Amino acid sequence: MNLAAAMTVPLSLYHIRPHPPFSSDNSIKSPTSTSTSIAVTTTTPSAITSNTMATTNDPIHPHPCLAFLEKCSNMSHLKQIHAQMLRTGLFFDAFAASNIVAFCALQDPGNLHYARLVYSQIPDPTTFTCNSIIRGYTNRNLPSEAILFYQEMLVRGLVPDRFTFPSLFKSCGDLHEGKQFHCHSIKFGFSSDSYIQNTMMNMYSNCGCLIWARKVFDKMVDKSVVSWATMIGAYAQWDQPTEAVTLFNRMESENVKPNEVTLVNVLSACAKARDLETAKLVHKYTDENGFGYHVVLNTTLMDVYCKCGCASLARDLFNKMPEKNLFCWNIMINGYVEDSDYEEALLLFREMQLRGEKGDKVTMVSLLLVCSHLGALELGKWLHAYIQKEKIEVDVTLGTALVDMYAKCGSIENALKVFQLLPEKDVMTWTALISGLAMSGQGEKALKHFQEMQISGAKPDAITFVGVLAACSHAGLVEEGISHFNSMSDVYGIQPSIEHYGCLVDMLARGGRIAEAEELVQKMPMAPDHFVLGGLLGACRIQGKLEAAERTAQRLLELDPENDGTYVLLSNIYSSMKKWEEAKRIRDLMAERNINKPPGCSLIEVDGVVHEFVKGDSSHPQSTKIYQMVDDMINQLKKAGYVPDTSEVLLNTDEEEKETALSLHSEKLAIAFGLLSTNPGTPIRVIKNLRVCVDCHTASKLISKVYNREIIVRDRNRFHHFKHGFCSCNDFW
């Protein structure tokens, strides 16, 4: 629909409802002389009228009532002034009456209902008076009332002016209304008014109609810097950063100097597009043109650098800022979190505290994410206590972050407690709990909460179903899992992605249905990835299906010949079946192709400090004691029947050396440190970057029994809860 066609569109009047006539009870009567505290000189009515007309139009000597009105601060005083204006006859001057309406409609202590009552008693209201009421409704977020009053204004025969439409465009609830007001602005002669066109562009942007916003922009005869900023901001808002940057470049070529708003908008677009080069050019421009100390501009620039992976550049800006608001601290902390520099994020929060700045919901969400990645439960508990102490509102986002943190730190009980206390839960909250239960080996509980989620009315999304299918897989509920997979498209209209097919393949393979899993891989609507084939290969190891493992490994190596995990897993399968020559061949192939298995790394938190161990690590200050504890631990385990499983050791050495290599694995070092550094009976929590090996899994089960400790290990696949000699994964991982 073009602008010419829009001229023919009438403004719908379906909003109009009869305005109830004001009864004598609602009308504003002139109070008696005893009801006012403002003294008025006694004159005859004729003198009052003549004086009124004279003083009203005299800019040097305004009428005393108007002077009082300028200083009015509340409705009580306003009503007294209004009463005096009625007594003197001044109220019946259109200009004077419009000031009463403007105060009631636009000032903070005003009263829109009173403004309407006053308006109803003005014999000949002006467009200015109507504009005040429309603007008052818009400012108070009453868009329907603003539009209804505009329609009443038209019915009364009043003609809108250039100040009427900006408020109406802000009140538009949908595109249909916006187009009608667009038509009216043209019909009333404002087709080239840049002020109206700017608000019109903003209206189209808010309605998500960037095509029309751009049409208005392109037809503008006089494009101000506000016009450019509005259009660039619209593109940035609706995730079209490339168009925003292109328009900014065109703005420069037309020699239009950007203002702060334009620069902030283009930097927001750069953040979404990860356009580091344009951001650097904007940074240079701000330095050269005196914008260097603009807080909002610098903060937005920091955000761009963080999102582009340049936390050091952001930190330079941050350090140079003379004043830092909470938003700046949050941007920088979150930047370090996104850059996986968790230590710097925590140090910056510490510095923030020392400067007397208190965190808010945004700060806490970022820091809880740090705890989730590090498995730092004690730090997470401290942050939870901080939230309660500082009375930070736990909304859906922060509540979900708490549930996710506790679940990923292996404290599913606390995750459940937080979840149950949340007054409001959205799909992400339910998903965090369901996925946490599934990864903790509590598949049936996860499915129970999925049922409760459906009863509550929350609609699951694609991520929720990844957690549901994982729960079915870990609980061995194959048929139920297939049913949930089918319900995705049949009931919820969600098209299964490769993650969902990967879960289904894993589920079938775990259940011993290797042939069906292979068939599903062949029939998938998309090519399988590492997740799908890796799950199938792992299941082949557990099920002892050598031929299927070889076929799957071949496909994995075709997909990525440099992936060390495929070689290691296939070699382990050969070793577990005593096929030593084949295992050696795979290891030789790794050496030939210069493929190295990444070192295992394990994290453990003790007294709020996260300690990191790698295989054979000797850098820890307590290394001597730790290795003594490892030796004691292995001796105790052997007395309990432990036999080291050397099948996964990729060394061509004798058994004793292989056993020594096994004892140096990072999770054994972390567990030994945990036994040394924590009180008897307390749980030990370890985070590992690789899949737990068979030997460490067996040893951890025995350690939990011999030392009477609960050991929670989170590897790259799932949680293992070792307790009384058993694991929550039922030896299937």
TrEMBL record:
* Any Pfam family the entry gives: PPR_2
> Entry's Gene3D superfamilies?
Tetratricopeptide repeat domain (1.25.40.10)
GO aspect biological process, one term: RNA modification
Which keywords label this protein? Repeat
**What positions does the domain DYW occupy?**
641-733
- Respond yes or no to whether keyword Transmembrane is given for this record: no
Output the InterPro entries linked to this UniProt entry: DYW_dom, E_motif, PPR_At4g14850-like_plant, PPR_rpt, TPR-like_helical_dom_sf
| PPR repeat spans | 126-160, 224-258, 325-359, 426-460
Molecular functions (GO terms)? RNA binding; zinc ion binding
Q: What family does the entry list?
A: Belongs to the PPR family. PCMP-H subfamily.
Q: What is this protein called?
A: DYW domain-containing protein
Q: Which organism was this protein described from?
A: Rhamnella rubrinervis
